[in-house]
Specification:
The chain is mainly alpha-helical. 71% of the residues lie in helices and 0% in strands. It has one domain: Farnesyl Diphosphate Synthase.
Length: 329
């Protein structure tokens, strides 16, 4: 398996994830926060009682750590606190997504004051962890550059949440606009993770930006694949179809002229309806017949080629770089 692969004496990707989990738990345990809030933070970041189990969170942790490894030419252990810091910011965004997409979730049912406090605590803990790393690090300047990137991303992420929340679901979104949104979401996450890792490993800003380019393309690929997986579900769901989210598959369906494709017509009528009785299997078949799945796959394939080319440029400088392995997942 890819996660188990070792190169020379370097840790396997599975071992890196284990180290990242330990760094997150350590940062949570040592946070200067009330015990009850610490436990709430821990639960908000776990799935089935474990950290870093989702493909997105694990992938971004590895992206940050391997970017440090490629930029510095050294083992990624010094970047583990930065990986923890980034995960806290991701969790804050996930809570906002839950509140925005479905008020019936666990967080949505909780008191608003608790949800706001949890988001604020996660954001503060993110910056606290990275700043603590700067104090302990011998590379103060590089730590400052990484912190600046995290702060900049925090502002962009909040702006993106606001834009998504205020988006008029009745207005049409073109395929190009949906692709831009994908880049602004997971693409921005990937760029931030890669640039934080690289900035900690080198002072060469062109090399840092090259890592960011790789991370942005990789993140956008993951967003497109997630858009395919999230666009359908069963009746009474909070899928992208039910929430009429501005994704590439839905934008493609809506771009098809009425009367040309029966499946597309039906999907357009279902968009924004949380109470339809159409099964998940029927929805999958309709998206397949509309061409939306194939089109989105095609876009992802083009982006994968672009990411492969960027990874090759990084390997010209660091032949031992393992960033290309992330494209095999």
């Amino acid at each position: 398996m890819l996660l188990d692969q070792k190169t020379s004496n370097r840790s396997s990707l599975k071992e890196l994830l284990s180290d990242a989990r330990y760094a997150i738990e350590e940062a949570i345990s040592e946070a200067p926060l009330p015990a009850g809030l610490i436990e709430r933070i821990r639960r908000s970041m776990q799935r089935d009682g474990r950290l870093l189990t989702s493909e997105s969170s694990a992938g971004l942790a590895l992206l940050l750590l391997l970017s440090y490894e490629a930029a510095s030419g050294a083992e990624p252990a010094p970047a583990l606190p930065a990986a923890a810091s980034f995960q806290f910011l991701l969790s804050a965004g996930d809570i906002l997504d839950d509140l925005q997409d479905d008020p019936g979730t666990e967080v949505g049912r909780a008191a608003a004051s608790e949800a706001v406090a949890l988001v604020a605590a996660l954001q503060a803990l993110s910056h606290h962890t990275l700043n603590r790393m700067r104090v302990l690090s011998t590379t103060m300047e590089r730590g400052g550059m990484a912190a600046a990137r995290l702060s900049g991303f925090s502002l962009k992420a909040l702006g993106g949440q606001w834009s998504d929340a205020s988006h008029d679901r009745r207005s049409a979104v073109s395929i190009d606009e949906a692709l831009v949104i994908a880049r602004q979401k997971s693409g921005a996450l990937g760029r931030c993770a890669a640039e934080i890792g690289a900035a900690l490993g080198t002072a060469d800003q062109d090399f840092v930006r090259l890592h960011g380019d790789f991370g942005e393309v990789l993140g956008t690929i993951h967003q497109l694949m997630n858009d395919i997986a999230s666009v359908w579900s069963g009746p009474g769901d909070c899928s992208d179809l039910a929430t009429d989210s501005p994704t590439v598959p839905l934008a493609l369906v809506k771009s098809i002229a009425r009367g040309v494709n029966e499946s597309a017509d039906t999907l357009v009528n279902l968009a924004g309806n949380r109470h339809h009785s159409v099964s998940g299997l029927q929805l999958r078949q309709m998206f397949w017949r509309s061409g939306a799945v194939h089109y989105t796959w095609g876009l992802a394939a083009v982006l994968k080629l672009r990411a492969t080319q960027i990874a090759a440029r990084i390997e010209e400088v660091r032949p031992a770089s393992r960033l290309g392995a992330l494209l095999q997942a």
